[in-house]
Design brief:
Structural class: alpha/beta
Number of domains: 2
Helix content: 40-55%
CATH class of the largest domain: Alpha Beta
Strand content: 5-15%
Number of helices: 17
CATH superfamily of the largest domain: NAD(P)-binding Rossmann-like Domain
Number of strands: 12
CATH architecture of the largest domain: 3-Layer(aba) Sandwich
Strand order of the largest sheet: 9-8-7-6-10-11-12
Radius of gyration: 23 Å
CATH topology of the largest domain: Rossmann fold
Order of helices and strands: HHHEEEHEHEHHHEHEEHEEEHEHHHHHH
Largest sheet: 7 strands, mixed
Shape: globular
Distance between the termini: 45 Å
């Protein structure tokens, strides 16, 4: 059986097939109508496009996609991936995962995803802008974008600048649309974005792993104590998600012993400071050679170091049937989309390793994107209405306590207590609450459903059931 699985992986790997396998495995534990489950399982709309752009006097034809997986709730939601490796199978899989992520964290969107087959590293800013604006125009032509239709966001290879171009292009076509800026999230704050969006996915990873580590019963099985402080952490990928996840673990008292990037993996038993490494990476465009670290091999080497917590934060299929047996972590938090193949997962689970699945753990991005979308629709910055009121009330409370007790609080303590919440504070608070509640629901389903023994199956079952209930409650069937 193991030989067959390895042969399957060596053929052209289908990410979407992996998602279907996880779906089928979870659906066995649900009572919903089989035909309804079949509807939920597959993508509703797949838009494959090709369009020309002219740069430096030469015409280049660009291949791109937008997939809407589920319309049980609108708008659909999902990022736009800029990568030379983009293909339809990958975008379909990512769109499906978005449906389940949104359901797990109770964000009222259907799942979608976009992809443009281009390498941002080899493109000038001018070329990237032309491609992004033309891609947006193609989405507008086919009604695949809009505040109540389909709302893109950043993904691998894209960021706030590209989202600003998307919003501006959409606004050009709909100049009288009051909510035009809500057609996309992940924008710069000055263009309608939200404070905290940049670090949202990495912060969600931290909150999710921290919550998982709070259950003594679960940690005892792994031979670990509760909490994050003192844990050793390895991170594969020093992009936006990997950097922020590493930083939050580091700031919470964990020791980040290994980090990898495209040029290789580095290790330091005394720990690596993510902020210092980021500064080095910006200067050298590499992590290998970082002072005090040891080069231990290629980008995949960080996956195999001995540690308490492993965070794969790069691309899909990084842990598979070939290398899963070499993983020495006790807990794996999937910060990337689909970093573990089904064959790899069976090996990991067989070795007693706990896996926190991607459809929960990296939902921080879409959660904060939801907050941004709400901000755009309400046209009011979070915190603007209550920040000063809260600060004044806290000031009055401090004054009353000092008068009643006869004791004086230090200026630093007063400043900390009196400070009202700003937008980032509220975003962090909302994200923390979301991740804690979602993990609790997943764990409860695993503990209370006979036959479910892993968090991924529990997460898929929780998500699929929520989508099915939406269909059933809304009476969508004619």
């Amino acid at each position: 059986m193991a030989v067959v699985e390895k042969l399957e992986e060596k053929r052209e790997h289908s990410f979407f097939d992996d998602v279907l396998k996880y779906f089928d495995n979870a659906a066995k534990f649900l009572d919903h109508d089989p035909q309804l489950l079949e509807q939920i399982k597959y993508c509703n709309s797949v838009y494959r496009m090709r369009f020309p752009v002219k740069c430096d006097g030469e015409i280049e034809v660009i291949e791109a996609y937008r997939v809407e997986h589920s319309h049980h709730k609108l708008p659909t939601k999902g990022g736009i991936r800029f990568s030379i490796h983009v293909n339809q199978d990958e975008v379909m899989a990512l769109a499906a995962l978005m449906t389940y992520k949104c359901a797990i964290v109770d964000v009222p969107f259907g799942g979608a995803k976009g992809g443009i087959k281009v390498s941002p590293r080899t493109c000038t800013p001018e070329k990237l802008e032309k491609i992004t604006r033309r891609y947006t125009t193609e989405l507008i032509k086919k009604n695949f974008i809009g505040p109540g239709i389909d709302v893109p966001a950043p993904d691998y290879g894209s960021g706030p600048q590209e989202m600003a171009w998307v919003a501006d292009t959409y606004s050009t076509f709909y100049p009288n649309e009051l909510n035009a800026v809500a057609c996309v999230t992940g924008k710069p704050v000055a263009q309608g974005g939200i404070a905290g969006r940049t670090e949202a996915t990495g912060l969600g990873v931290f909150y999710g792993v921290r919550q998982a580590c709070s259950y003594k019963e679960d940690m005892d099985k792994l031979g670990m104590t509760t909490g994050i402080e003192g844990k050793t952490v390895a991170v594969q990928g020093m992009g936006n998600v990997g950097y922020w996840a590493a930083k939050f673990f580091h700031d919470a008292g964990a020791k980040v012993v290994a980090i990898s990037e495209w040029d290789g993996s580095i290790y330091n038993t005394d720990g690596i400071d993510p902020e210092a490494l980021l500064a080095y990476k910006k200067e050298k465009n590499a992590v290998v050679g970082f002072p005090g670290s040891t080069h231990i091999g290629g980008p995949g080497a960080a996956l195999e170091v001995e540690c308490d917590i492993l965070i794969p934060a790069a691309l899909e299929n990084q842990i598979n049937g070939d290398n899963a047996a070499n993983v020495k972590a006790k807990l794996i938090g999937e910060a990337a989309n689909g970093p573990i193949t089904p064959a790899g997962e069976q090996i990991l689970l067989g070795n007693g390793i706990m896996i926190i699945p991607d459809i929960f753990l990296n939902a921080g991005g879409v959660t904060v994107s939801y907050f941004e979308w709400l901000k755009n629709l309400s046209h009011v910055r979070f915190g603007r209405m209550e920040k000063r009121y809260s600060a004044n009330m806290n000031h009055n409370i401090v004054q009353a306590i000092q008068e009643a007790s006869g004791k004086t609080i230090t200026a630093a303590q007063i400043a900390m207590i009196e400070r009202g919440p700003d937008e980032r504070d509220l975003v962090y608070s909302g994200l923390e609450e979301t991740m804690i509640n979602a993990y609790t629901a997943i764990r409860n389903r695993m503990m209370n459903t006979e036959g479910i023994n892993d968090l991924r199956t529990a997460a898929f079952a929780e998500a699929i059931s929520k989508v099915a209930v939406s269909y059933e409650n809304l009476g969508i069937f004619p």
